[in-house]
Design goal:
The structure is a single chain. The protein has about 725 residues and is mainly beta. It has one domain (about 1-729): Maltoporin, Chain A (Beta Barrel), CATH 2.40.170.20. The strands form 10 sheets. It has a 22-stranded antiparallel beta barrel. A 5-stranded mixed beta sheet has the order 3-8-9-6-7. The longest helix has 11 residues, at about 1-10. The model is unreliable at about 1-30 (pLDDT under 50).
């Protein structure tokens, strides 16, 4: 019923009063404010604000958009490191920025939070081929401007979906590649009907066997959007989503397996009573659907005032299924079985662990602009309900189980109310000041039974005040200096609660930089110092579904320098290099080793390489032909926080070749584009991710505790390719 009510609210919202006023302009940047951008204007940074950011357009993505997930397409941005469980960029992928993992990178789609409310993660596998429906992306590094959802602790990623197109078109997109990869996409647009209305959409399917054994992906997605616009009003209703079935590849490999069989996958192993491996369970999969319903009303009232209203409903449901060897009947909440006088307390079984959730969001902002000022007032109200439950599908000894036996069930609820105000004010012709104040109020409850006889009981609430301020100095029309301070606070996620008694994180972020523009060269430099209190850093360990485990570490910091440039070397050559140099430290880190608490002093923060560099060298001999070489270097990093030699993940350097060729127009098509992407052209063997764990051995020697270390890796594919065609009619 609540889903029906929400959709009806969206439908009723399609009839607002339409103000017929002249088009407003952003006087601080002397450029028109796009109606499309009104909904994200309160969240995105502009060049007059003291925030480091990168912009990516759909044209930037087009040549490499051949089926890989969005994080992989953003791999070459400054301070970005990406991961892929299946090893080839399709399936479960992740992004880290400045060493901060995906749970601490805030993501919004049209101003609506995309991070999962409980885990705070972003699961791009649920939105296959979403890059094909993106108009533009802004990646802000550091705290950035106030945004909707959990505060950015490493970066924020703001995505704007397709804008209206004036001309009708249809696109047929196909791609083939290594590991039996196939991608099929159909896109269309009616163009502007009567200069006001457009309907557009996309259907897509992607299939891949993956580089890792059995790490297959079967992905389907859709996108449908209706737009009404005139000079001052934009109404945008859209529904999009995806269905993913991926064979689990969460567990990586140990060092010996890496050396002998780097593509091996432990998931789904089946053992007999003698402990011999007899095969693999063929349905050891993650199976999840996610649907998003959004409505946006962007309005310009006059030369100074504009506003936006956003409504969202997200429905997610699915499970991961797994074969469990010799698992405890008690953990399934079943009685032991007696057979022939012998008691059986374990059983081989197959389980499904479900998540069924609903997420409702209302966003709104109003913007006031004059020649000297830009004021944005905005806010968010959201609520999340998530049901977690496990079902027994089959067991060798089913004991007292009834059909569809549930062995745990719990519920998570989260609500949030956020308000922010942002003012960019010209103080002189060259100097402008920026003030950004945000208040977040949220509550989180979770209670019930969890897997393996445990329970969960959380009832927590938070009130955060996050101020930000800075100045920008325009030395001349081509040179800009800026300085800023931002405070961010954020709540723990569900996994943090399940693994202890976490405290909220606090970050004080200081940024200083310069932007320089020229006729043939544009470059920027940014210096940052991020000081944390109770930072929830990755420990290196993972849980039963491969999710990273975090813990509070007291005091820590990240200090770094980011350099990036856009250089026209000639009329045919373009070079876009970037480099990030950083130091990332836990202060006075304590660790229980060999039965004694030790102070290890200042240690490196896990998953935080001190050097990350990217490059895109492009040769454009004609308007129809383009060749690009994309390079990425990620320095050595630790997979844990104790500076153990075993936890070092070696540095890696990879290079991709991207070739595009276009023909047309022809009689029957507007154009045909051919794209070739050869990843890792030098066939480097590398691992972009891993895990590290320790445990205490108390049984090998009497009255002695020995701390044992272990490590695992996620190998990435060697040389592989994707070849695609786009036919536009």
């Amino acid at each position: 019923m609540k889903k029906t009510v929400f959709i009806c609210i969206c439908a009723l919202g399609l009839n607002p009063l339409i103000a017929q006023q002249e088009q407003a302009k952003d006087s601080l940047t002397a450029s028109p404010i796009s109606l499309e951008e009104v909904s994200v204007a309160g969240l995105r940074a502009s060049e007059d604000q003291p925030v480091p950011f990168s912009e990516v357009t759909k044209e930037d993505l087009a040549s490499r958009n051949l089926g890989q997930d969005l994080p992989i397409l953003l791999n070459f941005l400054p301070a970005v490191v990406t991961t892929s469980d299946a090893g080839a960029g399709i399936g479960y992928t992740g992004i880290r920025v400045r060493g901060s993992d995906a749970t601490r990178v805030n993501v919004t789609i049209n101003g609506i939070p995309y991070n999962d409310a409980e885990s705070q993660g972003t699961f791009w596998v649920n939105l296959p081929d979403f890059a094909s429906s993106v108009e533009s992306i802004q990646l802000q590094r550091g705290v950035g401007t106030s945004t909707n959802g959990s505060s950015a602790f490493g970066a924020s990623l703001n995505i704007l979906t397709n804008a209206a197109t004036r001309e009708a078109y249809a696109e047929i997109i196909n791609a083939v590649g290594s590991f039996n990869t196939l991608r099929h996409t159909l896109k269309f647009s009616t163009g502007l009907l009567n200069d006001h209305i457009e309907i557009s959409g996309r259907l897509a399917s992607i299939a891949s066997d993956g580089y890792i054994d059995r790490a297959s992906s079967d992905l389907n997605s859709y996108f449908l959007q209706g737009i009404y616009q005139d000079d001052n009003t934009l109404l945008k209703a859209l529904v999009f989503g995806g269905h993913e079935i991926t064979y689990q590849s969460w567990f990586g490999v140990d060092p010996l397996t890496l050396e002998n069989d780097r593509t091996y996958n432990f998931a789904g192993e089946i053992y007999n009573a003698n402990g011999d491996l007899t095969g693999y369970y063929d349905n050891q999969v993650d199976n999840y659907r996610q649907d998003h319903y959004q409505f946006h009303w962007n309005q310009k009232y006059n030369q100074n005032w504009s506003s936006s209203l956003g409504l969202n409903y997200t429905y997610g449901r699915g499970f991961y299924e797994e074969y469990n060897n010799d698992a405890s009947l008690a953990n399934l909440r079943l009685n032991d079985v007696t057979l022939g006088g012998a008691t059986q307390s374990t059983t081989d079984n197959i389980t499904r662990k479900w998540l069924d959730n609903d997420f409702y969001v209302l966003t709104a902002n109003a913007q006031y602009t004059t020649d000297d000022s830009n004021l944005v007032l905005g806010g968010l109200v959201s609520t999340y309900d998530g049901d977690h439950f496990g079902k027994l599908i089959w067991a060798t000894f089913a004991s007292n189980a009834q059909p569809n036996h549930e062995f745990y069930r719990n519920k998570g609820e989260k609500s949030e109310v956020t308000f922010f105000g942002k003012l960019t004010q010209k103080v002189t012709d060259k100097l402008s000041a920026y003030v950004d104040l945000q208040i977040r109020n949220l509550g989180y409850k979770a209670n019930g039974t969890i897997n393996e006889l445990g329970t969960i009981d959380i009832d927590d609430s938070f009130n955060f005040f996050n101020p930000k301020l800075g100045v920008t100095y325009n030395a001349n029309e081509n040179t800009q200096w800026y300085l800023s301070y931002a405070k961010a606070q954020r709540e723990p996620n569900r996994t943090d609660y399940e693994n202890g008694s976490p405290r909220p994180e606090v970050l004080n972020d200081f940024e200083a930089g310069i932007r320089k523009k020229g006729n043939r060269a544009t470059w920027a430099a940014n210096l940052y110092y991020m000081r944390y209190k109770d930072q929830l850093v990755l420990t290196g360990e993972i849980d039963e579904v491969g999710a990273p485990i975090r813990e509070n570490v007291g005091d820590s910091y990240r200090l770094g320098l980011e350099l990036e440039a856009n250089l026209a070397l000639s009329d045919q050559w373009l070079w876009q290099p970037n480099i990030t140099l950083s130091e990332n430290k836990n202060l006075d880190f304590r660790f229980q080793r060999d039965g004694a608490l030790q102070n290890l002093g200042n240690t490196n923060i896990a998953y935080s390489p001190n050097l990350v560099a990217g490059s895109n060298l492009v040769f454009v001999p004609s308007t129809q032909f383009q060749v690009g070489v994309l390079s990425k270097y990620v320095g050595e990093q630790y997979l844990g926080n104790i500076d153990a030699d075993l936890s070092k993940l070696p540095a890696y350097f990879i290079n991709d070749l991207n070739v595009t060729y276009s023909i047309g127009p022809l009689k029957w098509v507007k154009n045909i584009d051919f794209s070739l992407l050869v990843n890792n052209i030098f066939n480097a063997q590398f691992e972009s991710n891993g895990y590290f764990y320790t445990y205490d051995d108390t049984w090998s020697a009497p009255n002695q505790v020995t701390t044992i270390e272990g490590v695992g890796y996620y190998p990435q594919a060697g040389r592989n390719f994707l070849l695609g065609t786009t036919i536009r009619i």
